[in-house]
From TrEMBL:
Residues 1-24 are annotated as: Disordered. It comes from Plantactinospora mayteni. This is Phosphomannomutase. Keywords: Isomerase, Magnesium, Metal-binding, Phosphoprotein. Residues 66-206, 241-329, 342-455 form the Alpha-D-phosphohexomutase alpha/beta/alpha domain. Gene3D superfamilies: Alpha-D-Glucose-1,6-Bisphosphate, subunit A, domain 3, Alpha-D-phosphohexomutase, C-terminal domain. It comes from the Bacteria. Residues 495-535 form the Alpha-D-phosphohexomutase C-terminal domain. Residues 1-11 have a biased composition (Basic and acidic residues). InterPro entries: A-D-PHexomutase_a/b/a-I, A-D-PHexomutase_a/b/a-I/II/III, A-D-PHexomutase_a/b/a-II, A-D-PHexomutase_a/b/a-III, A-D-PHexomutase_C, A-D-PHexomutase_C_sf, A-D-PHexomutase_CS, Alpha-D-phosphohexomutase_SF. Pfam families: PGM_PMM_I (PF02878), PGM_PMM_II (PF02879), PGM_PMM_III (PF02880), PGM_PMM_IV (PF00408). Belongs to the phosphohexose mutase family. Its cofactor is Mg(2+).
């Protein structure tokens, strides 16, 4: 390449004086339109530190947060590439504009968790809705996401908004949209949005003009406790009214909003109120006792397990901060207390519901264990497999069968789709308690039931290779690497199937006779994820030996997968 006169080859155009002037101008235009004095002051501080703050400013203006099927999620900060009042105002205006363009009627119901900014973002969404002439209903206080999903259906809302970043770090927040029956259809009533709705709303957001021109109305109507009581009543009714209730449970909401609702549900259903980890019992947006408020993360449930030992619990349960996920720990005779994998909980719940005579469609995702499919085939029930995410699970189809149960390995379970068309960590926790109490009344344990399933179907062991990145190009490079240099063998067995779901989804599935690898970027975090599964038959009834062989195979598969992605 020939350099232009007076221009060095190693000069980055983005670092030129003209580029800096353009970046400064974009930031000033944003500042002039920002309705929040706090973030205006924050952005002025960044501008005042130029040119030293150039990289930070460029990151804030690298592009707008994209409104996808998970809505919005990002760090709390000024600028289009963050969560702030300006971004939320535009998102709300785009959403209500999209609803108006479809000539829909009915209220917008809005919920929020206890994260920094959540209440303010919810109240601004209500003002934008009423300013556009649409009724807005606010949940009465910080509440779990499943309560919002329930309210969309129970109140006949046209749509719902939940302000939450779920299990993301404390510096993040997010904005999820649910559709009502008129916009989502029978399977999508009360469910999160799916394409093409996401791109249509995104286009409507981009069409919003100056924020000063967005009309703001009254703050909307704050609902009473009736909607929460309705959720508690309906959720307590998910389990059989006359089943065993003798169970000691340890529980943590991980500084989130789940405790009050979960304990109410357990009490109404006839269970003793769980013992709660005291240091994590109250909502705290800083999540001071955990590095990441996600029960899947190492160390997040250490206090829960300690409490379980202290009170002699039969099981231990954890919700993530917005209580749409549920983690379970059980005592293990060999290893002590251990956290169950999401696939173990998912199959245990499915098996429990099937034993109770719950017919209908059972569904999971392409990254979840294959065991649910095998279980359904053995029990003569329809099974559906979907892409990752509950927005797809609740829309699963198999003939005329209605969805009875769905799960994904990332601790998400839907045990009552007619009430909450989404993952619900509270109804899942209650149903698992019913399962454990039923087993206990028969002199059995959850570990015993896992052994019984393994003896019947073999050991289906799953694991995950998860790589967090600072630069999203690293994920693109890894996906390109495995697509161009796809391994011919895994665990010394030939790869019998390679399924590439692009361009519809950035997913690659590799299978051998007894192993499976699914690779995809995370939809909510800067992570590359590889989902691993091995199937090991049980010989002569020796389940522990089969588990040992499976564990060794998974470790080897993890190493081979890292090499196949070029990240060893």
């Amino acid at each position: 390449m020939v350099a232009k006169p007076n221009q060095r080859d190693d000069v980055n155009p983005d670092e030129s004086p003209d580029a800096l002037a353009g970046l400064r101008a974009r930031a000033q235009a944003w500042l002039d339109d920002d309705p929040d004095p706090t973030t205006r002051d924050e952005l002025r501080g960044v501008l005042d530190r130029l040119p030293a703050s150039r990289a930070e400013l460029a990151d804030r203006f690298a592009g707008p947060l994209t409104f996808g099927t998970a809505g919005l999620r990002g760090p709390l900060r000024a600028g289009p590439n963050g969560m702030n009042l300006a971004v939320v105002t535009a998102a709300a205006a785009g959403l209500v504009g999209w609803l108006a363009a479809r000539d829909t009627s009915g209220p917008l119901v809005i919920g929020y968790d206890a994260r920094h900014g959540s209440k303010e973002f919810a109240e601004r969404t209500a003002q934008v809705a009423t300013g556009a002439g649409r009724p807005a209903l606010l949940l009465p206080r910080p509440l779990p996401t499943p309560v919002l999903a329930y309210a969309v259906r129970a109140l006949g809302a046209v749509a719902g908004v939940m302000v939450t970043a779920s299990h993301n770090p404390p510096q993040d927040n997010g904005y999820k949209v649910y559709l009502g029956a008129s916009t989502g259809g029978p399977r999508g009533a009360g469910a999160q949005i799916v394409p093409p709705v996401d791109t249509e709303i995104e286009a409507a957001i981009r069409a919003v003009g100056p924020l000063a021109a967005v009309p703001l109305g009254e703050p909307g109507r704050v609902l009473g406790d009736d909607v929460v009581a309705g959720y508690v009543r309906a959720t307590a009714g998910v389990i059989a009214p006359d089943g065993p209730r003798g169970l000691t449970v340890a529980y943590t909401p991980l500084h989130g909003v789940g405790a009050a609702v979960l304990t109410s549900v357990f009490a109404r259903a006839g269970f003793a109120v769980p013992g709660i980890v005291a240091e994590q019992a109250e909502p705290d947006p800083n999540f001071p006792t955990v590095p990441f408020p996600n029960p899947e993360e190492p160390g997040a449930t250490d206090r829960l397990v300690a409490l379980a030992r202290e009170i002699g619990a039969d099981i231990a349960l954890a919700n993530d901060p917005d209580a749409d996920r549920c983690a379970v720990a059980i005592p293990d005779a060999v290893r002590g207390w251990r956290m169950l994998h999401g696939d173990e909980v998912g199959v245990l719940l499915a098996d429990h519901l099937i034993r109770q005579g719950r017919t209908g469609l059972y569904a999971s995702t392409i990254v979840s264990s294959s065991l649910l499919r095998v279980l359904c085939e053995a029990r003569g029930l329809p099974y559906g497999e979907t892409l990752t995410g509950f927005k797809w699970i609740v829309r699963a189809e198999s003939g005329d069968a209605e969805l009875t149960y769905g799960y994904e390995e990332a601790l998400g379970y839907c045990v009552a789709p007619d009430q909450v068309r989404d993952k619900d960590g509270i109804s899942a926790a209650l149903t698992f308690a019913e399962l454990a109490a039923t087993l206990k009344a028969r002199g059995r344990t959850v570990a015993d039931r896992l052994d019984e399933l393994a003896a019947e179907f073999g050991v289906y062991l799953t694991d995950q290779l998860s790589v967090r990145v600072d630069d999203l190009r690293e994920i693109e490079n890894a996906m390109t690497y495995i697509r161009t240099k796809t391994p011919k063998t895994l665990l010394d067995e030939p790869v019998t199937s390679v399924r590439d779901l692009s361009p519809a989804a950035d997913v690659l599935v590799l299978r051998t006779e007894c192993a499976r690898v699914v690779v995809r970027p995370s939809g909510t975090e800067p992570k590359l994820k590889a989902y691993l599964e091995v199937v090991e038959p049980v010989v002569d009834g020796d389940v522990p030996a089969a588990r040992e062989r499976a564990a060794a195979s998974v470790r080897a598969l993890r190493t081979e997968t890292a090499a196949a992605l070029g990240i060893w």
